[in-house]
Structure formats: structure tokens, C-alpha cells
Structure to design on (222 residues):
């Protein structure tokens, strides 16, 4: 069975799902989803080790409830992207920035905790926001695409086949919770009204307040 690129799952798990005021309708299909690979772009909601690889391991109690020790996730158990991988019968995604024990044959994770859509002009220690904003994550993906195929041609088996790499049309623009909170902190003077105005901002933009899962339809070729 051969897979075409339209069957690859590209995921952007966005923190706005935490304050979703207009949940999208649930769509149930009778045909199961079959995705051979997952590529993820996001923040701490699905960071499986990116920020830990760049700035030091996430300390306990992160990872303790399920893995028994820190594993790069800013969570004491599994993340949504872990459950996505499990449900598809795929291994947990390796972080692109992690150089130890990684395997990218079934996808890669470019998410880092504290990431935003808008490029950052401050350091992590200054603002608490990751320097790996969405544009940087895309640059990483582009580099990954080129270098992984070069390595695979040389015999490296831990890289994905070319047909598993998503194409640009699979990507879409969205908005991230970290961007909203940063906007709130910079533009609202009254501390007491900060959260309220944020929620009002989201309430009138229901499309942007959803957790976006960019799913390409499974179109397999027999």
C-alpha cells in the first residue's frame, strides 16, 4: 500500500482551546483515519522536549505521573499530541531540537513551550516567551525536510521517506494563546480588567478561538 502526501497529518495544537468559548461541532465519521506520520507545530501544549533540549530539562514533577521521570514535557503526564500519536498507532513524536534518542521515521515535533505566532524581540529570560516562534519552527521544518532526505540517501534509517514530508499547502495561519496574553500584558493598563478584555477579544473572534487541528483527508492509493 502506497501513501500520498495528502494522507499526512499536520497538527498545530493551539493553547486557545483552554479558553474556547465557542466549541466547534464534533464530526464523527465511520471510516477510520490512517496517517503514517505526524508533524507538529505549537507551544507547551504539545512540546515533547524542544525547549528542554535548548534551555535545560524540565524539572520534576514534570513527567513523574506517567513516565516516572522528566521527559522534556511541561506536564506531569502525557500531552494531547501523545494521545494523538497513540490513537494513530504511532510512536511519540521526537523533538526536532533533541539530539539524543530521537527517531523521525514517523514524523517530528517542532513545538517549544512558550512559543508564539509573532516573532519575539526579547529573550526567554526577559519575557518568558520562547524564541522559537512559528516562523522559526517553519524554518526548522524546511531545514529538516532538506537534510533528512540527504541523510536518508546516505543510508540513515531514522529519517522519514520523502513521501511522508508535508507540502506547503498543508499549512494554515492561526493565532496562539501566548500571543493573546502577550498582547494583553502590553496593551492593557488595568490589571483587574486584563483577563476580562482578553476573553471579550476572543468572544468576538470565535473562529480564532478554536483549537486548530489541520487534518488533511486520508486519500490512500491502493
Amino acid at each position: 500500500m502506497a501513501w500520498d502526501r495528502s494522507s499526512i497529518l499536520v497538527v498545530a495544537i493551539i493553547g486557545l482551546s483552554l479558553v474556547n468559548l465557542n466549541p466547534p461541532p464534533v464530526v464523527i465519521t465511520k471510516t477510520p483515519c490512517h496517517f503514517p506520520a505526524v508533524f507538529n507545530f505549537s507551544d507547551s501544549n504539545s512540546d515533547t522536549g524542544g525547549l528542554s533540549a535548548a534551555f535545560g530539562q524540565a524539572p520534576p514533577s514534570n513527567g513523574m505521573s506517567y513516565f516516572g521521570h522528566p521527559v522534556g514535557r511541561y506536564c506531569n503526564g502525557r500531552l494531547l499530541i501523545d494521545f494523538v500519536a497513540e490513537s494513530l498507532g504511532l510512536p511519540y513524536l521526537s523533538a526536532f531540537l533533541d539530539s539524543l534518542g530521537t527517531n523521525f521515521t514517523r514524523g517530528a515535533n517542532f513545538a517549544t513551550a512558550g512559543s508564539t505566532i509573532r516573532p519575539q524581540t526579547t529573550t526567554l529570560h526577559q519575557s518568558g516567551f520562547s524564541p522559537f516562534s512559528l516562523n522559526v519552527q517553519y524554518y526548522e521544518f524546511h531545514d529538516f525536510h532538506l537534510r533528512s532526505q540527504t541523510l536518508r540517501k546516505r543510508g540513515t534509517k531514522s529519517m522519514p521517506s520523502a513521501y511522508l514530508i508535508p507540502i506547503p499547502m498543508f499549512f494554515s495561519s492561526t493565532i496562539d494563546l501566548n500571543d493573546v496574553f502577550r498582547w494583553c500584558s502590553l496593551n492593557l493598563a488595568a490589571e483587574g480588567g486584563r483577563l476580562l478584555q482578553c476573553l471579550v477579544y476572543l468572544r468576538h473572534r470565535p473562529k480564532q478561538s478554536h483549537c486548530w487541528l489541520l487534518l488533511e483527508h486520508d486519500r490512500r492509493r491502493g
User: Anything to note?
Assistant: The radius of gyration is 18 Å. Residues 5-203 form one domain. The helical segments are 50-55, 80-87, 124-127, 134-153, 177-187, 194-203.
